[in-house]
Write a structure and sequence with these properties.
Length: about 120
């Protein structure tokens, strides 16, 4: 499979995967990967992230941390990364719940104001 960056130069997933090091301590950023592959474009980071997501879907063990991406090498790295994802999932669900509540309250206030105008 082949993906294209904004400069219409081909970037193969294999090339991206070859730039991702083993181990969390060696993690590299999406910018580093883009620079290494010379796919410098306005949208290079989303492009690199898409390739990485597809690689994970295809069975690769790729984690991320504040420093970037890495190949998960140990059970500890795997566990820590899963815990990080679970924590983010909980935070995202809380945000979704608050937005639903806020939306409902906004609609209730609008309805109340509409009724008062009558």
């Amino acid at each position: 499979m082949k993906f294209y960056d904004t400069l219409n130069e081909s970037v193969f997933p294999e090339d991206v995967l070859c730039t991702i090091p083993y181990g969390k301590d060696s993690a590299v950023s999406a910018d580093y990967i883009a620079n290494k592959l010379r796919c410098l474009g306005q949208n290079s980071q989303p492009h690199i992230r898409k390739i990485i997501r597809n690689a994970i879907d295809d069975g690769f063990l790729i984690g991320s941390c504040i420093n970037g991406y890495f190949i998960i090498e140990t059970a500890k790295e795997f566990k820590e990364y899963i815990e990080s994802l679970e924590s983010r999932k909980i935070g995202i669900q809380k945000r979704i719940n608050h937005l639903y509540y806020n939306w409902a309250m906004k609609k209730e206030v609008q309805l109340s104001m509409s009724l008062e105008e009558r």
